[in-house]
Amino acid sequence: MAEEIHVPAFREYPIIPAIVEGSMAHSKPYVAKPDHQQSVGYPGQLVDDWQNAAVKKLGELVSQSRALQVFLDSCVKCGACTDKCHYYLGTQDPLNMPVARQDLLRAVYRRYYTFAGKYFPKLVGAKDFTEEVRDQWYSYFHQCSQCRRCSVFCPYGIDTAEISMAGRDVLDAIGVGQKYSNEIIGKVHKVGNNLGLPEPALADTLEGLEEDIEDDTGVPVKVPLDVEGAEILLITPSADFFAEPHIDGLIGYAKVFHQAGISWTLSSFASEAANFSMFIGSHDNLKKVAMRIRQAALDLGVKRIVVGECGHAWRVAYSFWNTLIGPFDFLDPKYPAPQHICEVTYDLIQRGALKLDKEANDHRRITFHDSCNVARASRMGNIPGGQFIIPREIIKACANHFFDMAPETIHQNTFCCGGGGGLLTDDLMELRVKGALPRMEALAKVVNEYDVNTLVAICAICKTQFAKVLPYYKFQMDMITSLHQVVGDAIQLGTSH
Amino acid sequence: MTLTVVYAILFYIAAALFTIGVARKIVIYSKTPQPLKIPTTPAPITKAGVVWRMLKEVTVFESLFKSNKWIWIFGWMFHLGLFLVLARHLRFFLEPVPAVITLIQPFGKYAAFAMIAGLIGLWARRFFVDRVRYISSMSDHLMLLLLITIGISGALMTFGGVTLNTDVTSVKAFIMGLIFFDLQPLPDSTFLLIHLALVALLMIVFPISKLLHAPGVFFSPTRNQTDDVREHRHVAGWSAK
Ligand code: HEM
Ligand code: SF4
Ligand code: SF4
Question: Shortest CA distance to A371 belongs to which of A476, A483, A286, A280?
């Protein structure tokens, strides 16, 4: 694999690369099979009247969304966003410039729904929804990780993520969905998590994990499942249950709860924080997947819901849950609902409830990757920018060596890992490697300057993506570390709080 | 006199299309629900914070400033120039002329140059920056051509010397005549006729073009929403069902 993909070279200076037309036109994820499509409520294959069906669906979506109305009308083609997308920077394909990506959809919208597009299509660049356009949609709406970096820099806040979500929703509605996302959403509906891990297997895994922790530390830290009446229901990405480096994060959460003496539980019914329905712009699936969590919280009678390390899951939880599955009047009003695991840990640290030994992390020279959906689509704590402060403060409380990457690549300016938005699939490997370029460049700087050897993230997608792409850029794969692994390693179990 | 009648009709039509068109869009923007909260960081957590953020966006183009200094300089020159020029034009519409308007006359006069220079800078980018060239359609070029021509024809009347100077008193009489439905003759000046025809055209295309960014920016959810969804449940449209 490593030979096939041309890994872009680091740029000496932050120059903006020249456009190379069509350079990523071949990039397309596998199309969903009929049963994947049907499991999420879409037609199994391309519908007969796809052209009209797509136009109609697009009209409906726009009429239901002020964001789409404003975004489709307002772009002045100023070009401010053109160099902001990591996929453009990494691939140089002009259709990966945010405005050009939007224009794929805008051209069709204008053609069918605006005066100028109906009567002067050539003048305003309006286009019929032809097979060629449909293919371009499929290709380039699956080259957007919905990271919202473009939205930060657009004078009107035009958010290409909203456009690519709508585009994917239209494609789904005419029967050409993406296999990766739709298959996964189907699994959640059926089994409760992205992995399709059923209750007995999950129980087994967690038991094994408890044994591992006890072997390691000599302390019987629990990882409880389906415990009624627990104080906290933890909703975490299912990657945390089995893969490195995710699982070490889960161990970290368990240690935090253990030392703080908080009772908590996972749920086998809602064993997934991820909600890929957002990626495909599907409202029904978004709500249906989220509803499992409300149900689990009610069934288990918990007082708080806490969300584990996952970027888009935190966006859905923070920004959408109260809307979709609220109100949370059955939870303890003393705590925000939902709460991020970092908020919990940070509060405990502030209150002195965790005994931390920074020296346990002395072998780590740490930098922190702000995950897009946490950085630009949600928040933590009670002040603006809390999502940047809290994770860093946690790291600093648990480790002695912390170094931020360049300011234009962190906080609200953060660069996507390259694998977000439903693109974390092997059939998009080339895109993932190239899209990681800006982040890898920023990482290389702190590696060279400060000997950084640990890249901490709080997102399951980022962690998986980095584990895969770091080697392409000649970094150690195990640089990528869960934030709560750093916490877990610093916690002095056995010593009482 | 025929010319006067033709221009009078043109302006009535243009004004009607502009007003109805923009009002219609504003109604659509305000009536269309925004079902989910999607403010983009740095999102204010209070309403006052939103007002402050919006104020910065529309006066100093804050996001654009973060984004690209060249576009910002040219864009801001153009819009500030346009703003002053428009303010200066109020003297044609108001009787008596308010003191502030009289006060800004000298600045407004030179603002035309800032406006034209800004527009030329923006247009140059459409040719010389490969990314911007790629995203420009014919209408983007024509829009700049239209505005530049309006600007130049206007500036020529002000700065073109005695030969081109227009009888502003008669222009005012014509405009006031339009407002009070009491038609007055339009002075016969080539540049004035060009200027006015193009302004009418601008008003007509406004509601069907990207000029909708002016009302649009105020309705953009990523910019006008408060980041308080954990504290205040937000529902609208499909999310309210
Ligand atoms: C609320 C008022 C307005 C705001 C906040 C605003 C803001 C902006 C911004 C930030 C840009 C992008 C930068 C640039 O290219 O200049 C822009 C572009 C533009 N604006 Fe405005 N604008 C407003 C009103 C207007 C009006 C009234 C007009 C014309 C009658 C206008 C005409 C244009 C044009 C033609 C462009 C595109 C320039 C190009 O082709 O590069 N704007 N505006
Ligand atoms: S920054 Fe915004 S207005 Fe400018 S080209 Fe990009 S999307 Fe359009
Ligand atoms: S949302 Fe992110 S990936 Fe999508 S166009 Fe904008 S910058 Fe690129």
Answer: A483
Residue positions counted in chain A? 497
The end-to-end CA distance of chain B, in Å, is 60
A386: which chain B residues are within 8 Å (Cβ-Cβ)? none
Residue whose CA lies nearest to ligand 3 atom number 7: A85
pTM, rounded to two decimals? 0.95
Closest Cα partner for B124 from B69, B65, B71, B198?
A: B71
Q: CA–CA separation, A311 vs A317, rounded Å?
A: 10
For residue B71, list chain A residues with Cβ-Cβ distance below 8 A.
78-80
A85 touches ligand 3 (CB under 6 Å): yes
Q: Is A424 exposed, middle or buried (0-12, 13-18, 19+ CB in 10 A)?
A: buried
Tokens of B182: 């009491």
Q: Tens-of-pLDDT digits for all 497 residues of chain A?
A: 444 788 999 987 778 999 999 999 999 999 999 999 999 999 999 999 999 999 999 999 999 999 999 999 999 999 999 999 999 999 999 999 999 999 999 999 999 999 999 999 999 999 999 999 999 999 999 999 999 999 999 999 999 999 999 999 999 999 999 999 999 999 999 998 998 899 999 999 999 999 999 999 999 999 999 999 999 999 999 999 988 999 999 999 999 999 999 999 999 999 999 999 999 999 999 999 999 999 999 999 999 999 999 999 999 999 999 999 999 999 999 999 999 999 999 999 999 999 999 999 999 999 999 999 999 999 999 999 999 999 999 999 999 999 999 999 999 999 999 999 999 999 999 999 999 999 999 999 999 999 999 999 999 999 999 999 999 999 999 999 999 999 999 999 975 54
User: Do the Cβ atoms of B221 and A70 come within 8 Å?
Assistant: yes
Chain A contact for B89, CB < 8 A?
no
Contact criterion met (CB < 8 Å) for B132 and A122: no
* Distance (Å, whole) CA A240 – CA A224: 14
Tokens of A478: 């195990």
Q: Which residues contact A484 (CB under 8 A, 6 or more apart)?
A: A248, A249, A250, A251, A252, A253, A256, A309, A341, A345
Ligand 1: centre distance to CA B76 (Å): 9
Q: Are residues A77 and B64, on separate chains, in Cβ contact within 8 Å? A: no
Q: How far is the CA of A154 from the centre of ligand 2 (A)?
A: 5
ipTM: 0.96
| Closest alpha carbon within chain A to B37 | A319
- Using a CB-CB cut-off of 8 Å, the residues of chain B touching A385 are 41-42
Of B45, B140, B212, the CB nearest to A384: B45
B75 lines ligand 1 (CB under 6 A): yes
Contact B208 A81 (CB under 8 A): no
A156, A383, A411, best to mutate vs chain B, most B CBs in 10 Å: A156
The enclosing H or E element of A30 equals none
